[in-house]
């Protein structure tokens, strides 16, 4: 899995929504991890990927630090 990311794309701390992680064709958001939304969510469910945090009733996000660690473990440079 080729991950194209650099340090300037990720803030030091904060949260990322799923569209920021896997990309979104409708809004032309590039993917940090080139995987489909369903595959990513299945990876979360199986424990392969980090668990999200509920920020509100309809808002789920992942810690930047967790996604950065995931990218590094998958062989990408962050």
Question: How would you sum up this structure, described in words?
Answer:
The protein has 78 residues and is α+β, with helices and mostly antiparallel strands. It has one domain (7-73). Helices cover 32% and strands 14% of the residues. The chain contains 3 helices and 3 strands. The chain has a 3-stranded antiparallel beta sheet with strand order 1-3-2. A hairpin with a 2-residue loop joins β2 (53-56) and β3. The two termini are 15 Å apart. The mean pLDDT is 89.
Topology:
Layout: E1 15-16, H1 18-22, H2 37-46, E2 53-56, E3 59-63, H3 64-73
Antiparallel strand pairs: 1-3, 2-3
What descriptors fit this protein?
78 residues, alpha+beta, 3-stranded antiparallel beta sheet, globular
Instruction: Provide the number of structural domains.
Output: 1
What is the N-to-C succession of helices and strands? Answer: EHHEEH
* Strand order, largest beta sheet: 1-3-2
Helix proportion range = 25-40%
Query: Total number of β-strand segments?
Result: 3
Sheet of most strands? 3 strands, antiparallel
Instruction: Give the termini separation.
Output: 15 Å
The secondary structure category is alpha+beta
Number of helices: 3
